Structures are given as structure tokens and as C-alpha cells.
Amino acid sequence: MNKHIKDDEYFKSLGVDIKAARFKRYKKAGLLDEVDETFVEEAKQYWMQRYNNKLDPVLHIAFMNLTGKKDPRVAFYTTVRSEIIPFFNDQRMRDAYRDKNIYDLLIPTERSVVTVLKRVHGLYFDTDNNCLDKADVEETLLSYKEDFIVKPSTTNNGARVNKLQYKEDTLLLSGEKLKIKTLEEIYGGDFAVQKVIKQHPTMASPHPSSVNTLRMVTFRWKNEIRYLLTFARFGSNNGVQDNAGTGGLCLGVTDEGKFMDKAIDEDCNVYSEHPTTGFPFKDLDSVPNFEDFKQFVIDQHKNILHHDLVSWDIVVGVDGLPIFLEANFSGATWLYQLASQKPLFGDLTEEVLEHVYQERNDKNSPRRKSLSTNISKKGSSKKSKRKTSQRHSKNELSEPSKGFSDKGSSYKNELKQLQGENDRLMKERDRYKKEYSNIMKSSSWRMTMPLRKISSLLRKK
Q1: How confident is the model at residue 167 (pLDDT cuts 50, 70, 90)?
Q2: Which InterPro entries match (predicted)?
Q3: pTM of the model
């Protein structure tokens, strides 16, 4: 029986954490308007029987409202993040695989974005990994005579991705002449400067300002790399990033490579047209050669030995073939499932859950032994946790220089980088405000006012 529900206490009675941000996000977006109590109970029983998990059904309800599908296999984000991903992906190796500046060593494919300059742990390297003096960095970049993308090399959130423009033997960052010191202030000791990728017209059409990508997920299971799902990520507001966390949109792609007609953003707002350009998603052509894309990510995953679940950011090249951009080993799997309109593990869900549960409770399992220490083990007592916490506290107090000095230094460096980025953005804002003011004062603006009014009236009709 479906009900239109507004009372938070009702959701609480279903086992939903009403204080969590996810509940507020789904509710505000209208994805909790309809509730099927029979389905909620079915989903809770599914997870209890296969994983001994007391399910918060909020994602299942949101998934049902968005897609119309009642699928108990949808994987709750918190369980995936804190238990399932750490089981399949060795958390001890996470940082080693995350650095974009060693992708050429870890993922040796010719079809990859070209990094022309690397800064690793404060040192500079060229595209062939030869050491560079700081004095030679600017000359090296200018020798290419083209635009670049600059980004942090050890993060995957899409933040601080900027474009360097080449103009008259000069590189510009936000309209100002680039100084290497500015890059160091913004990005610190680890960043990458990459060539701008030329993308396929199909991917460019909804939002040409950004290089839009396919987020593809692969999974090592029973000695075989399996393809799980894909969704496209489009930038917005004429920015260069495509990441949902920076305002972008996610649009599902079917197993045959066809785009779905409804995109979703990080706040779960649903769009049939791109909010910046007005491009209708239903008019998108299919991803060309999609079977080649699936095989490409499967082949690349064979080089990733420590992680069984990998999310790939793949560009569709102008030739309609895949170009590797980034690999991720975690991710907002709730958004993956809503965007692609399918459960994360699909038909494998039941056996995956049962396998993980058995291994996590097997004292002799090497996977259990290697799990990150921040994952709470089932059956551990509160008393044991308190003792562990007290022991850690004593260790931290006995090593103040290690526990506080290093952290303080790290925070200071991060603050300095953010202050540099803030100063740059403030200058960019002031420049745009000045340009806007000049346009408003111009005679052409006044002369075209009647035309703009007519255009506005026609759009309303």
C-alpha cells in the first residue's frame, strides 16, 4: 500500500535515520513522497537474511520513487562504504593507487590523458618522469604552446581543477599571467598539469565547457573482472569540472550504451534538460562503440591487483574510443545506483553479500585480517572499544610531537593553499564584476533591451 508521508516520525518507525543528511536530501527532492511498506519490509528481510544487517531503507524508498522499481538488492551506502568496499579494496594501499602522477606506471595504456608536468612530494618531473629544476618548469610548459588542465594529484573530488590558457607565448590562470609560485600556493607539493582532451561531439553537446566523462564500474569476482554499470557526468555553469560534487549532473547509461532521459545532481534534483544549456537529454545519441569501452575498463582493471571494485573516469575521444582519465576506489555508491537506475552489484548481489558476511566472520580469512582498523567488528563489546580508545589516547599523549606537530603542520599547509585559492577567486570575481558593469553601461546593452524583452516573452509562451 502506497502512502503520501510527511511525518518524520513515520520514517523513523520504518528504521530510517531521520537525523542523517541523506534523509533530508531525499525528502527535500521529493524522493520519499511514496512509501510501500510491503516493499520496505521485503528489503529489510533481504538484507537481514543474507548479511545479518539491520537495514535503513531510505535509499530503497528513494530508488523506488525515482525509478518506479522495487528492488531489494539496492546497496545501502553506509554498509558499502564502511564494510563492503574495505573488504574488496585493500585500504592499506588506497593512497598508493590514488596518486594521478603515477597512473602511467600503474595503468600503462597508450589511450590515456597526457600529463606534461608532475609535482610529486615537492619535486618536479616532466612527461617522461625526468627530474626538472623549478627554473625550467615554465619553459617546459610554454614549449607545448597549448592549453592545459591543472589539478591536485592526490584527491578525487573534482575540487581545484582549473584551466591554463595559452595566449601569445604566455600561460594564463583565470585571466592573469601564470606564476609557478601561484601554482605552488594553490596546489602545494602534489599536482598534475595535463593536456586538454578533445572529446566526442555526443559527450560535448549537453555542456561543451567541460570534458564530460563516463563513470564506469568494474568488479573482480571469482577470478574474473566483471562490468557492473555506467553513468555519464556532465559539468554545469560553464565550469571545467564534471564532478557531481562541484555542481555537475549524472545521467545513466544502459548496458547497450544508450543514455537515459533523466539526470540527477548531488542534491537529487532531477533534470530532463541540462540546466545551463537547455540541451534535452533525450536527444543524446548512444555512446559509440560501447562494447569497446566495457572491454577497455575490464582490461585496465587487470593491472589493479589490490582493489577488486574500481570506478573509472573515461573520456569518449573524438574517434569514438575510450581514453583513460582517472581511477577511483571508493565513491558515492548511492548516487551510482540512482543515476544508473540499477543496484550496484546487480544479479551478483545475493552471492556477494553472503560471501562477504562469511569471510568477515571467519577468523582465519586473510581479508578479515587486513580490514581497516576503523571498521567496527560485529560482536565487539563497548568495554573493548573503550580500552582501545584509552590505549590510543595514552600513545598519542606519550608522543606529542608525532600526534600534534605533524597534524598542525599539515593543517597550516592546507590553510595556506586554501588562502591562495581564495585570493585568486576573489580577483577573478572582481574582474567579472568589472566586465559586467562595463556591459551594463554600454550603449549596445541599452539599444538591445527591447529585443531581450521580446525574447523573454516568447520563451514564456
Answers
A1: very high
A2: RimK-rel_E_lig_ATP-grasp
A3: 0.79
